[in-house]
Amino acid sequence: MTRRQINLYSPRSRTPVSPRQTRSRPLLHRARLVIPITQPPIEDGAVVVADGRILDVGPFPLIRRQWPEASARDHDETALLPTLVNGHAHLDLSALAGQIHSKKGMAEWIRSLLAAREQLDEDDLQKARALARDSLRAFGTGIVGDITSSEIHPGGKFNEVVITQTFVEVFGLHCQSLEVAIDQLPPGTRKSLANNQENVSLAAHAPYTTSATLLRQVKEWGTARDKIVSIHAAESEEEILFLNSGRGPLRDLLEERGHEPDRWEVPGCGTITYLDRLGFLDSHTLCVHAVHVSEEELPMLQRSGAGVCLCPRSNLFIGHGLPPVQQLLEAHITCSIGTDSLASNTDLNLFEEMTVLMEKSSIHPDIVLTMATLNGARNLGMASQYGSLEKGKRWLAIRVAATDSEGIVAAGRQGALEWVS
Ligand SMILES: [Zn+2]
Questions:
Q1: CA 86–ligand 1 middle distance (angstroms)
Q2: Fold observed for domain 9-82+390-420
Q3: pLDDT digits (tens, 9 = 90+) for 110-136
């Protein structure tokens, strides 16, 4: 796929800035390569920053002339790029690292997860969450979309390490009221939702665990508040089988857990078709996984404007195979990348996900970098502030010991990067 086909560098509206009206003296960052994401990489590039905002981006000789008053910092033979956006994680599950069986399919994976989670106490979970945040940062991730159903601690240390878009997860195969689903959540989390806290939204767990009524209500809740809502969608063949027929390993699992799957009204179609019928898909929906999307469903997804977050290593870990990345990109669907949890992945290094997409799905390194930055920010509703090096956006950047996009991914895998302030 060429850059032209997916229009990587289309001009977008810029936030107007008054560059000369900053309080601090501007700082000019020069590097061998600057990767703005919204325009082609700039050899011998520069970014001017003040008060945490980007004032200018361009070729160093030009920028130096235009900003004579700026002090300068040279990053030598490195590449400057925006921090990565991990579009989908479950930091709550970090304590389960290395404890879950792989390659056994969805129902078996969930059984294994539920059994292992029962063995952990709150102290284990807290410690593992803190380590996970540090690990995200060590591998260049500055923003994470995190799914949780535990207590939210607003304004805590969390946002100092990694900026978080929290999706509070609800489910209930026969639940007919979002209010009832929210009532099951811890008090601080309920309060965050009730107060319409910024960067806190809802996720429906999955179409095979969430009633049609609850799915509609989650979407209505998001629409009323102009928030992006998320869902695990079209992840496994087992899910597609259950939605089509009400049968299979997920039915058995739901039966075992007392969820009475035989009372559930079988939609008789694939996940994307089902969500489309329910009105769940629009530009404020983030579908996570999208491994099993049929050819007929691709235009449905595209028309809706919903974003997709791909978690390729999690899919391989559980045994689902890989998502149809080329087809999704060709259909102009905004694809971001996530690690999913440490219950279905070995680490939270987003550069490893990029490598899988490059090696197994032949995606160009420039495209995977866009997916891991700007598309990630778009799919979390944060692209007006983050995801690219553009005038007016916040300065949140890393430097990587490499001088081309393929080298950036290779070096990032090894952790050969630093945060730039
Ligand atoms: Zn997930």
A1: 12
A2: Urease, subunit C; domain 1 (2.30.40)
A3: 999 999 999 988 888 888 998 999 999
